[in-house]
C-alpha cells in the first residue's frame, strides 16, 4: 500500500505554518478618510500659498541683496540690475540679475572648449557604467552645440551673464510660488501626518530659498571664468531640470518617512496606530 501523502509546508492542511504568513497591521483608529485628507490638504495648501505669496516681494529683495554681497566677496566685476513687477500698484516681486561687461567669444577659447569636450568624450567612453557614460555623452553634446552656436554667431551670441542669471532667478521664484500648489495636489493628500506635512513643506521651501542665490552666484562665476558658450550647459545644470529632479527626489524621500506625531512632552514620536504587529 502507498504511504499517505505528507502535506507541504504552508498548505491549507497546516494552519500553523508561518512560511507564507503576512505581517498584519493593527487597526488605525486615528487614520483619516480620503475626503477628510483632501479637505485638510486644501486648507493647508491655502495657508502655505498665502504665506509664500505674501513673502515673495521681501524674499526677492533679500535674494538680490545676498547675490550682490556674494558677488562682492567673490570679486565678480558685475552689477546688479533690478526690475520690480507691479500688480495693482503694489510690488509683487523684484526681478534681478548680474550684468557684466560684454564678453567676446574668441576663436582660441572655442578651440579650448572643443579640446576639453574631446578629452571628456575619451574619458567617458572608458567608463563601465552605462548611465554615467550616457550622461557624460549628453553633457558633451550639449556643450558642443553651445560652442558651435557661439562660433557661428561670434559677437552676436544671444546669451550673456545678465540674461542667464535673471532667467535662473525667475525660474526659481516661479518654482517657489508654485510649490504650495504642487504640494497640495500631491503630498498633502497622500500624507496623513500633520507633522510630516509641516516638515516636508519646510524642506521643500527651505531648499529653494537656500539654492536660489547659490545657483545665481555659481552661474556668474563659471561664466566669468569661462566664456558665454557654457551658458546652455549651465542652464541645464542649474535651471528647471535640476529643480524638477530635486523636487522628485525630495518627494520620494519624504514618502519614506515614518508617520510622526508630537507626544505629550512635545517631542517627535512614531504614531502608535501604525505599528506593525509581529507575525503569529
TrEMBL record:
Keywords assigned: Membrane, Transmembrane, Transmembrane helix
Highest taxon in the source lineage: Bacteria
Keyword Transmembrane: yes
Region (Disordered): 1-31
Transmembrane segments: 103-123, 135-153, 173-190, 202-223, 229-253
Protein name per UniProt: DUF998 domain-containing protein
